[in-house]
Amino acid sequence: MKKPKIVPIPSKQEILDFIRAQPGRVGKRELARAFNLRGSDKIDLKAILKELEREGEVERGQKRRFARPGALPDVGVVEIIGTDSDGELLARPLNYEGEGRPPRIFMAPFRPGEAAVGVGDRVLAKLKRVRGEDVYEARPIRIIGEARARVLGVFEPNPDGSGRLRPTSRKEKAEYIVPRGETGDAKAGELVLADIMPGRLYGMRTVSVKERMGMLGAPRSVSLVAIHTNDIPFEFPEAALKQAAAEGPAPLGDRTDLRSIPLVTIDGEDARDFDDAVFAEPDADPKNPGGWHCIVAIADVSWYVRPGDALDKEAFKRGNSVYFPDRVVPMLPEELSNGWCSLKPDEDRPCMAVHFWLDALGNKLRHRFVRAMMRSVARFTYTQVQAAKDGRPDDKIGPLLPQVIEPLYGAWAALFRERKERGVLELDIPERKVTITPEGKVEAITERERFDSHRLIEDFMIMANVCAAETLEKVHKPCMYRIHDLPSQEKLEGLREFLSSLDLKLAKGQVLRPAHFNRVLEAVADTVNSHLVSQVILRSQAQAQYSPENIGHFGLGLARYAHFTSPIRRYADLLVHRALIAGLHLGEGALPADAVAEFAEWGEHISVTERRAAVAEREAVDRYVTAFLVDRVGASFSGKVSGVTRFGLFVTLDQTGADGLVPISTLPEDFYVHDEVHHCLVGKRTRKTFQLGQTLEVELAEANTLTGSMVFRLGGGSERPPRPPRPGAKPFRPGAKRHKGR
């Protein structure tokens, strides 16, 4: 008689590892099946689970199912709080009882027949852990509380006097019904704002038109679409407007008088506000040969916007200004953002200023903050300053060249040396510039030029931000840090696998620094793989955010960093100003003592509003680009593959930076498998490969000005990819999803 095989009882650690590895909660039945336990073995399993529960390693949920402490249930209620930089909906669990911050939740991609959810909705959802221990995917079951009261879309009439509304949002797939009597006299093709009416029809909802906003494609309609689609507040409440209109010049009082210092502002030609000014001179201290004394002066917004007043409440709600090609939605009313808080030339302005002293190598020796009064001597542009430095000064900048411009470049040369020594992630990603005519039409789409004058201001601002964070730590005041985490291990392993296919290596077994990524970028500079590698490294990085808990800024190679330099347009900077005023006893407008209890929640809020603004700005540019190209359907363009998914290729056109999709169904006849590691689609039969960074010739097949989306099809003349995946590389499973946890 054959003896039954004896299966050893798993250890506590093996059981714990198994529970932690599962996407949801685990019951004793699944554990017994996983470890092939039978009969009396289950008694031992029960004892081990009780011991793990007593030790706090696992917690028991409904139906005696186990998970790590703080894990979310398989089904729960979440509230949608915003979007990430890619436009994906983010949510938070309601009634979270775990310790520390709740896990991050991404809403699953919309499926036909599911509820179309939006920011503010409370949703009963199935929850599934998708990465590590802190990222979940939520798939909606039903909406239990709706925040969206309005929808923006294009009205199309029906013969019976009713109509339909096509939403402008790419995420809303379903149209709305506009009943007779609720059309608001809207015309065909008109952009309208409509209230969502109570109740539902099967498959479609009804709306009532409340505001007509002109024809789609009319001047300035593009930014209006982005504003309403992303729920960006754009009308100031009466109380805030009245407060701003009543403001006036700040008194000198106890402020340090900097009006004799030749501070200048340097911004882009299309800048709408001027909130930072700079100055540099050789350090007069003989103990610091070749050193520099610098000043960064920032508009004193905290003088005008006090904690809890009408302006402060609205500024917090907005979180930041939002910039579109044709307009800006400011964080503060125009009387402040373009008036008393704008450092206009030859006008006295209150400021917060930091003096810092550098040695010849760019190392900061010391710094000091003051609350001051300044008077800018000139407003220059980056192009103007760079031309002067290159020997082509105009009449305005020429007289100030030796006294102002040359010392600024001298100090920056020292800062730049220190930057190189410190190691900063040098990813230079091109930025699109949309030029709009006075009539609101797109005149041109170009790549923004980047000069040393841009880098000069950037490095001065970085140093000022470092000084702010260091000072707040020294005076023991709360700091809203700008943090940037290291890339996750999951993303790093994927990046290493990809780089190895190109015979490139990323350091392993040591603490990663930006310099390690820079060495990879340098190895492929000026090669066919340069763009490809840059894109993959960019996608491996974590997303920067605001938090009172400091973990440093990986990309800048800094141990402590806070935003101080733009309080006109970022609420985070205003909080830092108030904390400095409190810690250094600089007068009125200081941070209240009890504010520290709110900092974590405030950091999450302004991180969400920042992502919301980034999505809106990108969507507006996409729509402008689509409008610019709508008359060129059928034309051929050269572009590079900027994204590879299981449903096709995203291609970015070389000349305009326009993005569009080449659907997988239109690729040369074959079955294509998505290889996620190598960022490519591989033909199963032909082995034909389409890879990230590959140059393609495409034709514009569709241009949808309503959503700002374009569809391409392959043309002739597409080059071969830089290098196909190595033989035997494990392909991505068709139908699997890529989840982001940035």
UniProtKB/TrEMBL annotation:
<dbReference type="GO" id="GO:0005829">
    <property type="term" value="C:cytosol"/>
</dbReference>
<dbReference type="InterPro" id="IPR001900">
    <property type="entry name" value="RNase_II/R"/>
</dbReference>
<dbReference type="Pfam" id="PF00575">
    <property type="entry name" value="S1"/>
</dbReference>
<comment type="function">
    <text>3'-5' exoribonuclease that releases 5'-nucleoside monophosphates and is involved in maturation of structured RNAs.</text>
</comment>
<dbReference type="InterPro" id="IPR011805">
    <property type="entry name" value="RNase_R"/>
</dbReference>
<keyword id="KW-0540">Nuclease</keyword>
<dbReference type="InterPro" id="IPR003029">
    <property type="entry name" value="S1_domain"/>
</dbReference>
<dbReference type="InterPro" id="IPR022966">
    <property type="entry name" value="RNase_II/R_CS"/>
</dbReference>
<keyword id="KW-0963">Cytoplasm</keyword>
<feature type="region of interest" description="Disordered">
    <location>
        <begin position="712"/>
        <end position="742"/>
    </location>
</feature>
<dbReference type="GO" id="GO:0008859">
    <property type="term" value="F:exoribonuclease II activity"/>
</dbReference>
<dbReference type="InterPro" id="IPR050180">
    <property type="entry name" value="RNR_Ribonuclease"/>
</dbReference>
<dbReference type="Pfam" id="PF00773">
    <property type="entry name" value="RNB"/>
</dbReference>
<dbReference type="InterPro" id="IPR012340">
    <property type="entry name" value="NA-bd_OB-fold"/>
</dbReference>
<keyword id="KW-0269">Exonuclease</keyword>
<dbReference type="Pfam" id="PF17876">
    <property type="entry name" value="CSD2"/>
</dbReference>
<dbReference type="InterPro" id="IPR004476">
    <property type="entry name" value="RNase_II/RNase_R"/>
</dbReference>
<protein>
    <recommendedName>
        <fullName>Ribonuclease R</fullName>
        <ecNumber>3.1.13.1</ecNumber>
    </recommendedName>
</protein>
<dbReference type="GO" id="GO:0006402">
    <property type="term" value="P:mRNA catabolic process"/>
</dbReference>
<feature type="domain" description="S1 motif">
    <location>
        <begin position="634"/>
        <end position="715"/>
    </location>
</feature>
<dbReference type="InterPro" id="IPR040476">
    <property type="entry name" value="CSD2"/>
</dbReference>
<keyword id="KW-0694">RNA-binding</keyword>
<dbReference type="GO" id="GO:0003723">
    <property type="term" value="F:RNA binding"/>
</dbReference>
<comment type="similarity">
    <text>Belongs to the RNR ribonuclease family. RNase R subfamily.</text>
</comment>
<keyword id="KW-0378">Hydrolase</keyword>
